[in-house]
């Protein structure tokens, strides 16, 4: 068994004395692992880092085996990512999220979203909006997608302001008023036609609360796993940057 694909490294761990097990989010083969022989050498270690884009050749005797990688770097991002807390915690959060999906399941749009986010981690507000949308896309792929396109009560797409924590459906402002203390705030950039440019920090906070609530309810709690500390650190780094 063998194939070629493009991907982004999201993690590594030591294997034996000289090799690495490298975890790659590939475009056509999902999140995939393999061994890089001699991957801890001075020549290879610089490009076998999380955040780097690669062309990868995977080979194994049987499909269910771990297999081995032959990797060529196409874009090196690690030094830029490691230069800021948003970059460091951003790639760690994304990797943690991607490990929630089964290994080798194909999710092309998550690979594409990963690539876009990694290219915008230098701008706190844009990175935050993209991360929130990534988390909502992840929920959708796991079977827990939200309906934020129209009001659950009236069916209209105007004046959407809140989300029901029970149904994950949007509610317009007028219908939300009697229950406003029990609803989650819907940030403007997630409403139909809402702009991603220059979001208020209140909208960023509301977005992370929204995606975080449903991740906890549908994913973390049922699997009895804790929310990653990297996510909290990423959110705090975004907040500090936006206040400056």
List the helices and strands and how they pair.
Blueprint: E1 2-15, E2 19-26, E3 30-36, E4 53-59, E5 68-75, H1 78-81, H2 85-98, H3 108-118, H4 124-141, E6 160-163, E7 170-172, H5 173-176, E8 184-185, H6 201-223, H7 229-243
Antiparallel strand pairs: 1-2, 1-4, 2-3, 4-5, 6-7, 6-8
Helix pairs in contact: 2-4, 2-7, 3-4, 4-6, 4-7
Based on the model shown, name its key terms.
244 residues; alpha+beta; OB fold (Dihydrolipoamide Acetyltransferase, E2P); 2 domains; three-stranded antiparallel beta sheet; 7 helices; 8 strands; 36% helix; elongated
Mean pLDDT: 95
Rg of Cα set: 20 Å
Distance between the termini: 52 Å
> Would you report the number of β strands?
8
Task: Outline the structure in words.
With 244 residues, this protein is an alpha+beta fold. The chain has two domains: 75 residues, Nucleic acid-binding proteins (OB fold (Dihydrolipoamide Acetyltransferase, E2P)); 125 residues, no CATH class. 36% of the residues lie in helices and 22% in strands. The protein is built from seven helices and eight strands; from the N terminus they run E-E-E-E-E-H-H-H-H-E-E-H-E-H-H. The strands form two sheets. It has a five-stranded antiparallel sheet with strand order 3-2-1-4-5. A hairpin with a 6-residue loop joins strand 6 and strand 7. Helix 2 packs antiparallel against helix 7 and helix 4 runs antiparallel to helix 7. The protein is elongated.
Task: Give a short synopsis of this structure.
Helix content is 36%, strand content 22%. By secondary structure, the chain is of the alpha+beta class. The chain has 2 domains: 2-76, OB fold (Dihydrolipoamide Acetyltransferase, E2P), CATH 2.40.50; 82-148 and 186-243, no CATH class.
């Amino acid at each position: 068994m063998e194939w070629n694909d493009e991907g982004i490294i999201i993690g590594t761990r030591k294997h034996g004395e000289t090799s690495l097990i490298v975890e790659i989010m590939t475009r056509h083969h999902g999140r995939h692992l393999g061994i890089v022989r001699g991957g801890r050498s001075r020549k290879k270690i610089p490009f076998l880092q999380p955040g780097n884009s690669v062309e990868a050749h995977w080979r194994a005797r049987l499909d269910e085996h771990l297999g081995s990688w032959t990797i060529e770097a196409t874009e090196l991002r690690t030094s830029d990512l490691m230069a800021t807390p948003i970059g460091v915690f951003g790639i760690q959060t994304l990797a943690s999220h991607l490990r929630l999906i089964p290994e080798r399941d194909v999710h092309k749009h998550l690979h594409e979203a990963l690539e876009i986010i990694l290219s915008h981690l230098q701008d706190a507000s844009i990175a935050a909006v993209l991360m929130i949308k990534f988390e909502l896309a992840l929920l959708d792929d796991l079977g827990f997608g939200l309906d934020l396109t129209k009001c659950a009560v009236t069916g209209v797409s105007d004046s959407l302001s809140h989300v029901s924590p029970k149904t994950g459906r949007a509610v317009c402002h007028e219908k939300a008023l009697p229950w406003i203390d029990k609803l989650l705030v819907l940030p403007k950039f997630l409403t139909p036609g809402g702009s991603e440019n220059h979001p208020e920090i209140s909208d960023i906070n509301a977005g992370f609360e929204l995606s975080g609530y449903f991740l906890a309810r549908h994913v973390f709690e049922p699997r009895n796993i804790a929310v990653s500390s990297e996510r909290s650190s990423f959110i705090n780094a975004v907040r500090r940057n936006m206040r400056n």
